[in-house]
Amino acid sequence: MSKLIGLIAAAGWCAGAWAQPVPRTSYNRDVFVSDTGLDTVYLCRDLNGDGDANDPGEAKVFFDNSNAVFFSGAGAVFTIGVAADGRVFVGDGDTDSLYALRDLNDDGDANDEGEAALFFATASTLQPFQTPGGVAFGPDGVVYASTAGAGATLTADYVYRLRDLNADGDADDPFEYSVYIDLGALVAGSSCFDLAASGNKLFLVDTRGGAEDVIFVAEDTDSSGTIEAGELREFYSTARLLGPAIGLGIGVDGDDVYVVDSASSIPVQKVWRLHDVDGSGLIDQTSEVTEVWSEAMVPAGVTLGSAFDLAVGPPGVLGLVSSGTDLQDNVLVMTDLNADGDFMDVGETSALVVGNGAGLFADNARAVSFGVTPVAPCDPDLNQDGNIDQDDVAYLINVVGGGGNPGGIDPDFNRDGNVDQDDVAALIDVVAGGDCP
């Protein structure tokens, strides 16, 4: 046991340290899209492999006001995010609520009894949560949700930190919700929209009213549960004139940040990849900005409106929604077929859903997110003796240290691609009653 304690000390172990936001390899080809014209969230699936979801049964109502419980259902859904366990989180501006949805009976929707939970809401917490702009997932089961500050009762933008501590399916109970970032106090003219997380870093789009648009990055370095002034810094600003004209959507893949232009700022919309090459924490040189897609790549016969939301999907896949007049309401999927790091080649952009006219999907596409295939639960009984205890920890320590592995277990217990003392720390937490990594 002394060897075990030494390993823990060397790792600087603390509960949940290995938990991460959704890994990109967990995303699948399901696409969730909100339609604020129809007050509906759709699930889009290309069932026949022809590259679109325009055929019968391929774009299905996933959540609306026909839900079997007391919720009013999807109204003005401005944001969608899918968690690592497959739950679909939707932020609704009509009810000032964040719903957590799960298709329990595998019928392709979350409208049946028990499939929708009111995760966080103004009505139940008295917290101002008007115009939800973004949702993202951090370590240790944390959900971040932003509110854009519109309305007379809310004069500042907030990012909330939410965590379901009592496992009742919501974060509405005391101590489960808090203001993580008071952007009104930190950013003049703040107007926060989309969020994306990478490890302990939270990226957020802030259009800042009439000022230059900025992507901020927040990191709670002192573990206080609140972002202070020194923990919120600029990642990129349009004032730097490096190309991107920041829109409302953002996506993150490790150290790569994807952003789409705003149509109000630039005539030809583009998607850009931002990468901090020199480790300065700031995008401030041309080598750190790469154009990976252009509006010129839209398939013939498809008209792009104003790009609203951007989503990362499986490796090499991005999604984009646009809105405008009837023919401009589209959902695009970009696939890097030749693995050259961009989506600028012929055939790499497809129209998953095209505008079908007023009153038909997509009538006013707004938010997009790819589905997630949950990772199978871990098996902490590594020595296969029927008990989950310190003997399993000792077994893993031996394997990590180069010893025998008679059971043929996979020693990468925390599934980060490395076999090291972090796997031991992850197993210790599970043995003590924590969640699987």
Straight-line distance between termini: 23 Å
- CATH hierarchy, class of the largest domain: Mainly Beta
Number of E-type strands: 24
Number of domain modules: 2
The pLDDT mean sits at 86
Alpha-beta classification: mainly beta
CATH homologous superfamily name of the largest domain?
A: TolB, C-terminal domain
Low-pLDDT parts are 1-20, 150-154
Work out the radius of gyration: 22 Å
Helix and strand string, N-terminal first?
HEEEEEEEHEEEEHEEEEEEEEEEEEEHH
- Could you say which overall geometry the principal axes of the C-alpha atoms support? globular
What is the annotated CATH architecture of the largest domain? 6 Propeller
What is the CATH fold-level name of the largest domain?
Neuraminidase
Give the strand content: 25-35%
Helix content: under 10%
